[in-house]
Prior knowledge:
Elements: H1 3-19, H2 23-34, H3 44-47, H4 53-92, H5 111-124, E1 129-130, E2 136-138, H6 139-142, E3 170-172, H7 177-186, E4 191-200, E5 212-222, H8 227-242, E6 248-255, E7 258-267, E8 284-293, H9 295-300, E9 309-315, H10 317-325, H11 338-341
Parallel strand pairs: 1-4
Antiparallel strand pairs: 2-3, 4-5, 5-9, 6-7, 7-8, 8-9
Helix pairs in contact: 1-2, 1-4, 2-4, 5-10
Amino acid sequence: MTGDDLQELTRGALEEIAGASDPDQLELVRRKYMARHGGLITAGAAALATVDGDGRAELGRAFNLAKSTVQQALHTRQLELASGGRAADAEREWLDLSHPGAGLDRGHQHPVARLVREIEDIMARLGYESVRGPEIEDDLHNFQLLNMPPEHPARDTHDTFYLAGAEAAWLFRTHTSPVQMRTMLSGRPPFRIIVPGKVARRDNPDPTHIPVFHQVEGLCVDRGVTVGDLKGTLEYLLRALFGPERKVRLRASFFPYTEPSLEADVACGICQGSGCRSCLGKGWMEILGSGMVHPQVLRNGGVDPEQFSGFAFGMGPDRIAVLRYGLPDVRELYENDLRLLEQF
């Protein structure tokens, strides 16, 4: 290969570079002339080994000139094609900023979370503050301070999830009542709080039960609080949740931490009270337990029952969601079925 050969190759390369209409075609030209192995111009490097003396120096200068000239032309043409491509893309994808944009897909609030927030809003209108506490509890706050004796069935392993290997009796709380006790022990009356949170019990799953569920409890402690205050609060809450047309009943019950105790039922929204699988044929669904706080529980919380009285209540938002939205089975709330969740 001679210097004249390199000049001829350079002219051909420059013509093909100028004629390349897109980056792919330009790449083919680069490989043809400048590929490390087999390129027409880069082959001049091998030719240098066959020339001696002054001829070798002259051929080397010609090779370097051809190489730098073609590389510069390739770089310049690459920039031109990129600039032209961006201009073409901009022309093709012209954006009208005044045109309304496409809507964004948004997540959906879970019906239970939505209901908990609604309950918080309702009770806030009555002056109640929402507080939260630990989901892993000790026996003292979950049972002892709430007047639940050692032989109480709720303490059995068939009803409560205990943590294996723990030196003390640690468990997954069975209700959010321990937060009420912690609140009383950390301050002084009056108290008006609601406690939403997750709880667990060893229930076999069925249309009205799941082992891990949600609870919202309320506590009011002040001077002169009566059963009439409790009934008025429950009626206000239930009417706000279900409307005045849904039948509600209060009936006597028993809880170790309240005396007297009341339970609230609402007519089944599936069968309208006639009896079905969801309400186990009763026509009613229990949604709320309540009562006047037991004097011993007040003492355990550092409150003098001779000066203060109070009431407490607890409800299951999962079960209320079933009633509110006409679901036949509480388990449907946690099957992640988008056909259900997208409605909220």
